[in-house]
């Protein structure tokens, strides 16, 4: 009994420190509500697409971990926590450290502007599903920019450049 209770406490701890992702999901729901106001329609498909679109940009972190950033110290630390099954420590490490991971390829103004343009085109072409998905991605990135100011006190430098920020060897 005591063991299962401590596991439940551990899950609560992890959920609390991973709340940033839940904020993204809630913003996806809010985006679906905004679409309902603009289009006069709301259905489960649009809500689900907006929720998925609101967390989809974080796939960039996985690309970073398993491809172009796999040798980075941050990645090595994350993998060590995973290997050692230190879930609580991993959660706190990611919560505190993910804002300093400035080499993500798609977390920048240029990509956000491109997505905004695509979402606008889809809106005028009456492609509600794409507007739900891509618009939620734009909301995700905008929230991350505001969150940078909130948590760091300044905007993360990755927003001002294109690509992953790493210099290629000539």
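Q: What amino acid sequence fits the structure above?
A:
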């Amino acid at each position: 009994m005591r063991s299962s209770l401590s596991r439940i406490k551990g899950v609560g701890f992890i959920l609390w420190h991973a709340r940033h992702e839940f904020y993204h999901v809630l913003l996806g729901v809010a985006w679906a509500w905004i679409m309902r106001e603009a289009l006069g329609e709301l259905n489960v498909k649009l809500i689900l697409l907006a929720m998925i679109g609101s967390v989809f940009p974080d796939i960039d972190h996985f690309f970073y971990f398993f491809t172009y950033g796999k040798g980075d110290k941050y990645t090595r630390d994350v993998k060590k926590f995973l290997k050692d099954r230190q879930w609580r420590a991993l959660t706190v490490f990611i919560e505190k450290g993910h804002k300093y991971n400035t080499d993500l390829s798609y977390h920048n103004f240029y990509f956000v502007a491109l997505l905004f343009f695509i979402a606008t085109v889809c809106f005028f072409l009456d492609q509600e599903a794409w507007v739900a998905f891509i618009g939620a991605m734009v909301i995700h990135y905008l929230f991350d920019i505001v969150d940078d100011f909130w948590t760091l006190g300044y905007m993360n430098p990755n927003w001002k450049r294109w690509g992953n920020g790493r210099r290629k060897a000539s």
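Q: And what stands out in the fold?
A: The chain has a mean pLDDT of 82.
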